[in-house]
Structures are given as structure tokens and as C-alpha cells.
Amino acid sequence: MRKTLVWDLPTRLFHWLLVLCIAGAWITGEEGAFDWHMRFGYAVLALVLFRLIWGLVGSQTARFASFVRGPSAIMGHLRELRAPGRLPPHAGHNPLGALSVLALLAVVAVQAGSGLFTSDGILTDGPLVPYVTGSVSSLMRTIHMTNFDILLIIVGLHVAAILLYALWKRLDLVRPMVTGRMNLPGNIPAPRIVSLVRAALVAAISITAIWGLVSFA
Fold first, then answer.
1. What does the alpha-carbon distance between residue 20 and residue 46 come to, in Å, rounded to a whole number?
2. N or C: which end of the chain has fewer CB within 10 A?
3. How many C-beta neighbours within 10 Å does residue 77 have?
4. Contacts of 157 (CB under 8 A, 6+ apart)
5. Main-chain dihedrals φ then ψ at residue 194, nearest 5 degrees
6. Spatial contact of 8 and 59, defined as CB atoms under 8 Å apart
7. 57, 110, 123, 140 from 50: Cα distances, Å
8. pLDDT tens digit sequence for 56-103
9. Shortest CA distance to 165 belongs to which of 65, 96, 106?
10. What is the pLDDT of residue 80?
């Protein structure tokens, strides 16, 4: 076994910044600090856009093509979970982890996207509220409120899965997402890691796109 860089820095930063921004949006929404609530929402949108692009042009373990698998792979992984002993090492997301990533990205995108069209009817309007009817804005507000409960459920399942892997299979999924490195046997090649310059370009595109959407709206 050798320590191998599996998660690149951009993927790790995305993960933890998303956690912080979702928490920030939740807290500021509960406290009625809607200006900051919206800023956190814009940051979430930029992060989601970054991850979608990074899933196409990023490092090997970040690319959707490298970890999104079909039903047979998912069933095979479930059989591995039921079997005694440790799991075979995965250089990146396992098939269930891939489902978690896709579900989180989808629900977070709906949450932040619906907020663009949401109005509290008093002080704060999303930047795209003027472009839709009142009934559409009301529907988006309902989606924004209801979808957050779905987001909490998915986050809870995500945390529960991490604990299950740690307690049942003695597999630490948190430390590699902090350090980027995990123990892999010699017969598994190190994933290809791309330049940070590419990540900076993708980040600039994502931030500029969301800034432009909000500013020109």
C-alpha cells in the first residue's frame, strides 16, 4: 500500500466551500439576513457550475465519466458491502458515492436556482423575479422551501453513509477529502491530476457567469 494523491485541490476546495456556503445560507436565512443569504446562494451557484465543468475537464477522479456507473456496478458494490472484511480500495468515488454526488448537485442546483426567482413579498426579491409572473415566483418560493427539506435529508444520508463506511468497513472517507491522499495498492495506478491553471480558468468562468447573470438581471 502507498499513499496516493486521489483528490485534487480544486475538488477538495469545492467540497468544503459548498459545505460552508450551504451552512451560511441556512443560518442567514433563519436569521433574516437576506442580503447575505442571497450572496451565499450566488456562491453556491458558482460552485455548482464549477463542479459541473470540472466534472468534464478536471482531474481523473473528478470527471463524471470516471465514476458514474450503471446498475450492475451499484449492485456489485452492495454485495461488497455485505461481504465480511474490508472493501476493495477505490481510487475515487465508489458507485454509491457517485449517486450521492449526482443527487447533491441536482438538489443544491434546484435550491440555489429557485432562489433567483423567489420573493418574500416584502423586502427581498431574487434577481430574476421581475422576469416571471407572480404565480411563477410563488411556485419557486414553494420549491425553494420544500427542496431545502429534501436537501437536509440527502445531507443526512450522506453523513450516515460516511459513518457506515467508517464503522462497518473501517474505511475513512473524510481524511482523503482533507488531505487528498489515500492508501492504494501498487496494482492501482495513481489517478491523473490536471494543472491548477485549468482549475483557475474554470473558476473564473463560473464566477463571471454567475456575476453576469445577477448583475445584468
1. 14
2. N
3. 18
4. 100
5. -95, 170
6. yes
7. 10, 15, 30, 24
8. 999 999 999 999 988 898 898 888 888 877 777 778 898 888 999 999
9. 96
10. 83
For the chain, give every domain's residue range. Answer: 2-216
Whether the predicted pLDDT of 184 surpasses 90: no
For the chain, the three-class secondary structure string (H helix, E strand, C coil) is: CEEEECCCHHHHHHHHHHHHHHHHHHHHHHHCCHHHHHHHHHHHHHHHHHHHHHHHHCCHHHCHHHHCCCHHHHHHHHHHHHCCCCCCCCCCCCHHHHHHHHHHHHHHHHHHHHHCCCECCCCCECCCHHHCCHHHHHHHHHHHHHHHHHHHHHHHHHHHHHHHHHHHCCCCCHHHHHHCEEEECCCCCCCCCCCHHHHHHHHHHHHHHHHHHHHHC
**Average pLDDT, rounded, for the chain:** 92
Q: Which amino acid is at 58?
A: G
φ and ψ at residue 5, rounded to 5 degrees: -70, 115
The residue written with cell numbers 422576469 in the block is 131
- How far are the Cα atoms of 27, 48, 146 from residue 195, in angstroms, in the given order? 35, 20, 39
Contact 182, 6 (CB under 8 A): yes
Residue 217 has pLDDT above 80, yes or no: no
Residue 212 has pLDDT above 70, yes or no: yes
Over residues 103-132, the pLDDT tens digits come to 999 999 999 999 999 987 666 788 999 999
Task: Provide the CATH topology of domain 2-216.
Answer: Fumarate Reductase Cytochrome B subunit (1.20.950)
Q: pTM for this structure? A: 0.93
